[in-house]
Amino acid sequence: MQHTREEHGLPRFALAMAKQTVGALRDLAPIFAVIILFQIVVLRQPFPDVANVVVGLVCVVLGLALFVQGLESGLFPLGEALAQGMARKGSATALLALAFCLGFGTTVAEPALIAVAAEGAAVAAEASFIGDSQAAQGRYALELRLVVAVAVGLAIVLGVLRILKGWPIHRFIISGYVLVMAMTLFAPEEIVGVAYDSGGVTTSTITVPLVTALGVGLASTIRGRNPMLDGFGLIAFASLTPMIGVLGYGMVA
């Protein structure tokens, strides 16, 4: 197969991008169909600025294709290599430090979390829960991002410990959600929705690829661990602990 590609003079990356573009177009086709259906059949209105809409849709398809290809070419191999290298080094402390830094760093940089924190700060200012100044909103958004990032970092540490020790995941998940329900009863109502959304936005474009690769790479290196059984589950921790962290932040602050 590789010889055939070289004969035709098609670089491997170009072939991979063509495949990803077709896949992205296939995956986004139902969304495009729904938008077109409701715009033309239900609303019975023409698209505003068709040229810009078409350009935007093309950018979405190409952006998704580039993103997925970047995951497969860069982030997934990098995460697995980091996990395997740290496991071979044999230092549990260094491995747990890597897990925390990876969870914290990817979450702080998560675009979805930045957007939710900024929107939450704006709404909190409108409701007079915080000051209406830009400084107050910026401080609130930053504190929210840091709380979520620390919670995700601790979640990845707990997930790595689970892989190392072979602990069953369902006990942690059940206990965590019981704690979330209990904290919801005592947390301020204004923070509950933000806390629940914080659990969802952490499992987004940057965090998921690296954290998943870390778990799979670690489980494939440790003797007696199954990558399918033990390698996955870190994302569940990354979704759960931010809710606990933000609820606790609301109760304290």
Reconstruct the topology from this structure.
Layout: H1 2-8, H2 12-42, H3 50-89, H4 92-108, H5 111-126, H6 134-165, H7 169-186, H8 189-201, H9 207-221, H10 227-230, H11 234-252
Task: Describe the fold and architecture.
It is a single chain. It contains 11 helices and no strands. The chain has 253 residues and is mainly alpha-helical. The longest helix is centred in the first third of the chain and has 40 residues, at 50-89. It is globular and about 60 Å long.
Descriptors for this entry?
253 residues; mainly alpha; 11 helices; globular; disordered N terminus
Count of distinct strands? 0
Radius of gyration, in Å, reads: 22 Å
Q: Report the end-to-end length measured between terminal Cα atoms.
A: 60 Å
Tally of alpha and pi helices? 11
* Morphology: globular
Major sheet attributes: none
What's the helix-strand series?
Answer: HHHHHHHHHHH
Which runs of at least 5 residues are low in confidence (pLDDT < 50)?
1-9
* Coarse structural class: mainly alpha
| Helix proportion range | over 70%
Strand content: under 5%
Mean pLDDT: 82
Task: Give a quick precis of the structure.
With 253 residues, the protein is an all-alpha fold. The protein has helices at 2-8, 12-42, 50-89, 92-108, 111-126, 134-165, 169-186, 189-201, 207-221, 227-230, 234-252.
